[in-house]
Amino acid sequence: MKEYALLVCAYLLGSVPTGLLLAQAFGVNIRETGSGNIGATNVYRTLGRKVGIFTLLGDCLKGLIPVLAAKALHLPDIWIASVGLAAFLGHVYTVFLGFKGGKGVATALGVFLAASPLSVLVALFVFVAVVYKSRYVSLASITAAAVIPPLVAAIERTPAMIAMSVIIAALVIYKHKENISRLRAGTENKFKA
Question: Which of 32, 87, 124, 171 is most buried (CB neighbours < 10 A)?
Fold first, then answer.
């Protein structure tokens, strides 16, 4: 019973629209500003570094906390992976915004920080390298998402974790389809530190 309760709590926590709530505190509807996305990058561009960082941390914690809770309860890998996926899906398809949410990068970061920290370390290196070289956060997010499944497969070696990583990576890349079109057209916004 506790497994199902944790699954529901993970989804609901993941559904909390951190960026939207923080932007509203400043009188801004983030869905009508910039790219219209509720994630940390759009909040950063719209409201500045501090609010962007708080959004990133909040979205990351939404993935981290449920997975840590599942591990603390010594649940089997299938449940840990399911809880991580539920938190991620909560962010991407939030019940509070008509099942329209963010792209899931920061929440996925939180999930994998708890589930496979070594994989995250390598993926973060890839992310930073791509941002440094290209100045495209979207390209870095897509690339980091693409390397996560093979990393999890090599490090964790459990079918449930591998399946979770493949689903999350595929959804992160899919949610960046408009960014991919802009990257191809050369119209994607570059990151300015």
Answer: 87
